[in-house]
Amino acid sequence: MATSNERGMGAVAHLAPMIGLGYLGWLVAFVILLTQKDKSHFVTRHAVQSLTFQFILFLWSVVSAVIMFLPVVGFIGQILLAIGGLAAIILPVMGAIHSARGEDYEYPIVGRLYRRSIS
After folding, report:
1. CA distance 99 to 107
2. Can you give the pLDDT of all 119 residues of the chain as single tens digits?
3. What is d(CA 9, CA 67) in angstroms, rounded to the nearest whole number?
4. Nearest 5°: CA angle at 109, between 75 and 48?
5. How far apart are CA 78 and CA 104, in angstroms?
6. What is the rounded distance in angstroms from the CA atom of residue 53 to the CA atom of residue 70?
7. pTM (2 decimals)?
């Protein structure tokens, strides 16, 4: 069972991009990962999930923005950007809730990548 401190750090790793840090939120999750990787498997899992999701979301945003400026299909880029924005709000909150409860959480797609990388 994860301690209250571990649950809190896992939640912070998920919520860092939403608490005013924007694209620097990855830095908080990265520092948490570096400081806790040998101490807590629970915090490490949550920090890695958050970092991977933030990286994929950044790539999603760049690709969406490029598509948005293409003639004829620009509206698809806007739709993709909106989907990414919703995911950036909903999924980290879900991750933080699961972490605060002491439960594991896997982001869609990211969870499969994480499981493959550790097996």
Report:
1. 12
2. 889 999 999 999 999 888 766 667 788 899 999 999 999 999 999 999 999 999 999 899 999 999 999 988 999 999 999 999 999 999 999 999 999 999 989 998 777 766 666 55
3. 36
4. 115
5. 32
6. 26
7. 0.86
Q: Where are the domains of the chain?
A: 4-118
In the numeric block, the tokens 């908080």 are attached to: 28
CB 78 within 8 A of CB 67: no
Distance in angstroms (rounded) separating the CA atoms of residues 69 and 118? 38
DSSP state, residue 2: -
d(CA 36, CA 28): 12
